[in-house]
Amino acid sequence: MTIDLTPYLTDTGPKYLAIARALSEAIRQGELTPGTRLPPHRQLAESLAVSVQTVSRAYAQAEKMGLLQARVGSGTWVNALDDARETAYLRGHEPRHESPLIDLSIAHPVCPPSHHLRFRQVLVELADHANPDVITACRPIAGLPHQRERASVWLQTRLDVPGDMEDRVLCNGAAHGLMLAVSSVVQHGDLVLTEALTDHGLIALSRTLGFQLRGVAIDAEGVIPEALESACHRFKPRAVYLTPTQLNPTGATMSEARRDAVADVLIRHRVWLIEDDVHALLEAPGLSPITARIPQLGFHVTSLTKVTVPGVRAGYLTVPRGQLHHALPRMRATTWMATPLIFEIADRWIADGTVEVMAAEQRDLLAERQALAARLLGHHAMFSRPTSLHVWITLPDAWRAEELQQQAEQEGLAITTAVPFMVEQTPPPRRIRVSLGAEQDIARLEDGLKRLAVLLDEAPPPMMQIVY
């Protein structure tokens, strides 16, 4: 086929990198679609007035970036594996009794026997004393009034989320709340800014709803205010989606000063904020959400999932004053109303302080596991929070992330690379995310971390030692 990359070419840097970046931009804008066969090296070289060697290097670079796939005897094709990779990641590993695979791949809280006991106890209480509305109600769509009222007070006093009962929507987990928030203000084709590495759920949501994503540079505290300022000025986004507390996958957490600076940028540019605060309860009280600084622009989402039990899909969406009428039709269209029985459990746990007890227990359990990871893997460069679900590890020079992931699976370990969290199709960072909560037996976790330590300390098998 014939393609025209000239609209996407820049004069900066080596020619082969400029061509690779042009291919990336053409793919991002839909000019080149997955499964498209690219022209032979010589044909593209002639059309761009460069050498065949330059095009060969550009194709090789684009293949390393995950954009292209070279097939022996068939040519070079635009990579069509993204959806398959995402589906495989979301499908994950089927739960099996005493599975030999040690799961260090999924964001999952530790669920000790005390959590299960509390769950059974509250079900017994509901069986004896629950209001009939809990099983017969089908409106109001935003949630039963007593559940919303208690949640509203708790959100204000515990998490410093502004608003009152009329600004709150009960939703089926944080993922559902984020979908409602994004779809309330973002239309098909709109641009949303987010961290350069962000939650994979947002990337999937962008494909589902058809909006564009742009990544903004991050550091150890999350999004960099100066980079966000520049991106807002250049791209005029419809909204900005941020995770200020324990960003997935890096664990980056903004200081209060960083949150102030980010809020100032959003105010200057009058941009909607979608704040993913699902990890708020994994930090001790004291951090204030960005939404508290800009309540007129901020949609705030949190849930109980990361500190109680994952099956309690109790999510809380707070909308800016006057925006509820946008969120409710989307609530009705996606689920009608959140499950009242789940929120009756959450309501009782909030009322009697169980949520805070379970959150404190979760932080203690994760701190123990973080200490274990530091002891076994700490001689490698890694970043984590004391009570985070993950550690973010820089690989030794000998390893590439996907190679390590494949070798780890052969060794009975499931780990996660940066690929599911990447907004732009650029070379993935040589890092892995190691999750500490999915294995409930700490002895199995220790065994898995020891196996991983051995892998990291060794060179890859000879067949993986490819020179580019």
UniProtKB/TrEMBL annotation:
InterPro entries: Aminotransferase_I/II_large (IPR004839), HTH_trans_reg/aminotransferase (IPR051446), PyrdxlP-dep_Trfase (IPR015424), PyrdxlP-dep_Trfase_major (IPR015421), PyrdxlP-dep_Trfase_small (IPR015422), Tscrpt_reg_HTH_GntR (IPR000524), WH-like_DNA-bd_sf (IPR036388), WH_DNA-bd_sf (IPR036390). SMART domains: HTH_GNTR. CDD domains: AAT_like, WHTH_GntR. It comes from the Bacteria. Residues 13-81 form the HTH gntR-type domain. One of its GO terms (molecular function) is DNA-binding transcription factor activity. It holds the Pfam family Aminotran_1_2. Keywords: Aminotransferase, DNA-binding, Pyridoxal phosphate, Transcription, Transcription regulation, Transferase. The keyword Transcription applies. The keyword Hydrolase does not apply. In the C-terminal section; belongs to the class-I pyridoxal-phosphate-dependent aminotransferase family. This is PLP-dependent aminotransferase family protein.
